[in-house]
Each structure stands twice: as C-alpha cells, then as structure tokens.
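Hey, sorry for the delay on this. The queue was backed up all week. Below are the sequences that define the complex (chains, strands and the ligand SMILES where applicable).
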Amino acid sequence: MKPERVARIREVLDRRQPDLTIITDRVSKPHNISAIIRSCDAFAVPECHVVWPDEDFQTYRRRAAGSQHWVRVNKHPSTAEGIAHLKERGFRILAAHLSASAQPYDQLDFTQPTAFLMGAELEGVSNEAAELADGHVIVPMQGMVESLNVSVVAALLLSEACRQRRQAGFFDQPRLADADYQRLFFEACYP
Amino acid sequence: MKPERVARIREVLDRRQPDLTIITDRVSKPHNISAIIRSCDAFAVPECHVVWPDEDFQTYRRRAAGSQHWVRVNKHPSTAEGIAHLKERGFRILAAHLSASAQPYDQLDFTQPTAFLMGAELEGVSNEAAELADGHVIVPMQGMVESLNVSVVAALLLSEACRQRRQAGFFDQPRLADADYQRLFFEACYP
Ligand SMILES: C[S@@+](CC[C@H](N)C(=O)[O-])C[C@H]1O[C@@H](n2cnc3c(N)ncnc32)[C@H](O)[C@@H]1O
Ligand SMILES: C[S@@+](CC[C@H](N)C(=O)[O-])C[C@H]1O[C@@H](n2cnc3c(N)ncnc32)[C@H](O)[C@@H]1O
C-alpha cells in the first residue's frame, strides 16, 4: 500500500467521532440507506445503526452498494433494542421528528454524545421511538411540502454536528479509543 | 379554502427567493430529482431547472411523485441552453464540482443571485458545465468515500444559502415580483 494511502486512512481515522451516530427506524429504501451511510462516512461517523426487523438483511445490505465499506452498520431487530443499545453506550437519542416539542437543529448542542434517530419514508418515527428518545429535533422548512427526504435530513443534522464539533476542537486530535483505532486501521489497510 | 390555508400560502410566498435556484445536469434518478425538488420547496426556491435531453420527460416527471407541485420545474434540452437561460436572467452559476479550484460552501456569498449546478450520479458535472460555470463549490468531506449523494449536496447548499439570506434580512419582506406572487398565489389557491 502506498504511503499516501496510509496517510489518508490515518487522516480519516484521526477525525472519526465515536460519539456521533445515526439510527434508522425502519427506513426501507436502499437508496436512502445508502445515502445515509455515505453521509456518515463524509461527516466522520465510524459506525451507524439500522433497525430492520426483516430477516433478509443480507439482500438489503447488498443493495446499499458498497457505501458501507468505511462505516460499520449494526443491525437491530427492533426499535426498543436499538435504542437500548445506544443508551447503554451513553448516547443521547434525538429523534428527527416533527412534533410539538421538537427543537430547531441549529439550537441544540451536538457536542454531547449524540445519536440521531431517523423515521421511515412513509410512517415517520414510530410512537415507540418518539417516546423512548431523549428529545426531538427538526430542520425548519419554509415551504408547503410536509417533510424533507430522510437522507437529506440526516446529512443536515450530521453536518451541523460536525460544524459544532470542529469549533469545539473535536477534530484536532484523535477521538477513537486506541483499540478501535487499531482495528479500523488494520481493516482499512487489509480489506 | 380555509383562512388558515390562505395565510399559510401567503407565508410561504412571502419567503420565496426568486434569485436562488438549482439546475441539475443530467441527474437521472427520479428519487434524487424528487428529493431535490422537495428541498427546493423547503428552502424557499420557487422554481428549479432540469437538463434532460431525452424526449420522454413526462414519464420522468410523473415519477417525481407530486413533489413538484409547489416548485415549478423548467426543462432544458442541453446544459448549454440551461446555463445560458440562467445567465440571461442574471444568475451566477456555481457548479457543485470537486475540482482543484472549488471553494468550500461555507466560505462563499450566496446572497447574490445564485444557481447551484448539480452533476449526474455517475458522470458528475459535465466538462461543458464545469467550464461555463462562474465558479465551483464543494461540501468538504472527512471520510474515505469520494462523493456524497447529489440530493444531499443540493440540500446542504440551499440550507447554507437560506442561513445567509435570513441573516441578511431576505426573509423579512416578500421578494417575488408582484406578478409572480399573484400568479403563484392564484395557482396555489385554485390548483
Ligand atoms: C419522509 S419523512 C416521514 C414523513 C411522515 N409522513 C411523517 O409524518 O413523519 C421521513 C423521516 O425524515 C425525517 N424528516 C423529514 N423532514 C424532516 C424535518 N423537516 N425535520 C426533521 N426530520 C425530518 C424524519 O425522521 C421523518 O420520520
Ligand atoms: C455522486 S456525485 C458524482 C460523482 C462522480 N463520480 C464525479 O466524479 O463527479 C453527483 C454529484 O453530486 C455533487 N457532489 C457530490 N459530492 C459533493 C461534494 N462533496 N461537494 C460538492 N458536490 C458534490 C456533484 O454535483 C456531483 O456531480
């Protein structure tokens, strides 16, 4: 492997944010999942979460077309289990959900450990998830249409989180735990 | 029509930004076009542009599933014609293009009349468009993957443009020309 490639991998790992993630609540269209995983990679998220009750996750996964190569995708069989897993790991869960209590995304602090929960294309965020979440967040809209595309919202949230974290110096030194850094470095060098 | 509905339509029209738009350069997947049109609506863009050489635009359009109801979609048969049309109307064309001369999107002024040109899913921005554009803009990425989804980038650019325009007071009073305002109001009330 060329030294430039190794340097690039290190640069990427040096910026990864282990305490920033996305969890999708039955988002079902592969192009949306794929776009979300690409955005995770671009916005320094090393690992994301997918709630997908169907057994047939392999097919689902394959259709996401390699975009998950640089982002680990964890599958959870139910919303409750996915959220419990993240809470145990210390994440605050913010559901992207157009509810009365939702706060605009540029008025919340995303430098805390944050998992954004994204709702399904048709059904939106499930009642269960809306209740289990620690809070609700919205991207304010100026138009007539009721909602944005789910992958678009995920990217807007992650990009705001990165903006805040850059300002707070989170990109100035590696934040991955040593063991995770070494494992990811090895996986990237010997795929 | 209920008074609340009329008030809502007026509120939306009061914020529309006639000098902010998107032009897609052969973007071909309906879910991407559809997501882009939804973002235009949400980020106050009254009218967008699509370069699509194929004759069969009706099918293409139908598949965008009603999201174009609140945003006029103008079709252009070639990139050159689309860009010429926008330049004639006073737009500065910024191609979302990962070139050496591209500038980060949060360091450019989007309060000027601005059209963001978006490249195709596989081919990216055509050479022709890259040359005809007044400048190139990028969304900086922190990861390994080479690019973001095209509808994700369009939304990030429009949301930054709205942020700047809100700060500059562009949402404080109507900006549509009177005749356009009346026409859009009529169309919205009697669809
Ligand atoms: C297409 S929307 C679902 C719309 C669904 N009909 C509803 O009422 O919730 C899919 C998901 O995208 C996210 N979303 C869309 N627009 C949003 C916005 N403006 N703010 C926050 N989240 C949004 C939410 O997570 C939502 O569940
Ligand atoms: C999937 S990308 C095209 C990738 C193509 N292989 C290329 O090399 O250009 C589709 C379009 O999304 C936009 N895009 C994607 N990521 C971008 C980024 N980080 N900054 C600016 N534009 C981007 C560009 O308009 C691009 O043409």
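Chain B has one domain: 17-173.

I'll add it to the shared folder too.

S.
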